[in-house]
Amino acid sequence: MIYIIKFVYSFILPPGLFVLLFAAVAVWLWRKNRRPALVLLGITLLLYLSMTSLVADPLIGSLERKYDQPNTVDGDVIVVLGGGASSGNRDLDGEGNLLGPAANRLLTAARLYRETGLPILFSGGQVYADSGNEADIAKRQLIGLGIPEADVLAENQSLNTEQNAVNTAALMKAHGFSRPVLVTSGFHMPRAMLEFEHARLSPLAFPTDYIASRESSFYLGKFSPSPGSAENTGIALKEYLGILAAHF
After folding, report:
1. CATH number of this structure's domain 77-208
2. pLDDT digits (tens, 9 = 90+) for 143-158
């Protein structure tokens, strides 16, 4: 019963509500002019499918499965890519917090540090006027987790993945590093690897922050529209577009 209630709720609240509204307009148009009604129905169907995990999970999962976590780590520096930060919010030892993907990447880097002792280089700047500087926040938080400041490098100027690669390559060269262990979200890893290869680096991919489960089941919730699924569809399409652009 609880799953039926969840399914109904998904159409009462946005974004499912908009699917119902568009469908209702299409039905109303059908009585007057079937051609625009069919076009609107087609658009509504595409919009609806993009909001479901039935579509979002395979899309983002296809990116996440391109690289597996290695069993052994062979490198001389752990390179972590940023994934968003907020500013002005209180933290335990300062202000500003990393958003979910960036925080997951940082957590993985801290765990890798415990296992390997390799220094951590966090790459990411302040992308927007009201967002936090990712590398500066990450450095503070890593030190707060007990990692020595001498083992944390902050590359705080990059605004996108291409700049992450170029600026990281320069900072690595300045500190004598040449074998990066690249930590980023699974969905982001294919594009990141391309950009780092363009920057004349050959990193060891260490993906984390997975979204889609490896084993998938079929149930009613797969057909429920949700903001999270819509976001995941958008993320996957953005990554595929970015990969295409990186190839050129």
Report:
1. 3.40.50.620
2. 999 999 999 999 999 9
